[in-house]
Design brief:
six-stranded mixed β-sheet; 7 helices; Glutaredoxin; single chain; 31% helix; alpha+beta
Length: 217
């Protein structure tokens, strides 16, 4: 019986160690697919007390900053997950603000690659970011991606953020069209046609992989 319990525990730890069914590093151009669009809420919009369809404890609740700051969060706990359509403001509030703000501040994109990105025409581009707040890869790469986005000058209102659970499922009717297997996944569209994806971790860097996807714009 003890051996069975040990094997079960090892299996569970292995299952949550990564953020996908199999770790695969690539920036993938894909066949044209229908874009999944949504009206992005204004950045000035009041942050809801909980994420859509979720019950993230203290997420965005005014007056609970001290309690959140003193709490050691286990992001595998489903009560911390942000699910469905999100805004960046929700990531910058408890319990997620520490990893988000630290990652955003620390990341320094390659300036030469950023100069190349500045030459890309952005008017016809949109981006969808699928992440899991329980996922270490998402908590590392999403703040880095947003730092790159802001330095690039890409409008945040043309980015859709979708939070998923540990099974990579979001409670949205159109979510299945995205065919998500690993998170985070960054999907780039031009004129509503998918140009490519960065899946889980970049091949080189977020800015280099973004440039590689968009350079044939």
């Amino acid at each position: 019986m003890r051996v069975i319990l040990i094997i079960t525990a090892i299996t569970l730890v292995t299952a949550i160690a990564g953020c996908g069914t199999a770790r695969k590093n690539r920036a993938a151009a894909s066949e044209p697919a229908p874009v999944v669009s949504a009206d992005q809420p204004s950045q000035d919009e009041k942050v809801p007390e909980v994420a859509p369809f979720g019950n993230a404890a203290l997420a965005g609740k005014p007056g609970n900053e001290d309690e959140a700051a003193g709490h050691v969060w286990d992001f595998r706990d489903a009560t911390t997950w942000l699910l469905g359509d999100l805004t960046p403001a929700m990531l910058a509030n408890p319990p997620h603000e520490v990893w988000y703000n630290e990652g955003y501040t620390a990341y320094q994109p390659d300036q030469e690659i950023m100069a190349e990105l500045m030459t890309v025409e952005k008017d016809d581009l949109t981006i969808t970011v699928v992440l899991g707040t329980w996922c270490p890869d998402s908590r590392r790469e999403v703040p880095h991606f947003m730092k790159m986005i802001d330095l690039w000058g890409f409008p945040r209102e043309r980015i859709r953020f979708i939070g998923v659970d540990i099974n990579k499922i979001a409670p949205l009717e159109d979510y299945g069209l995205l065919s998500i297997e690993r998170v985070p996944t960054f999907i780039f569209y031009e004129n509503n046609i998918e140009k490519g994806r960065i899946i889980e971790v970049p091949v080189t860097s977020l800015e280099q992989d973004t440039w590689n996807i968009l350079k044939e714009n």
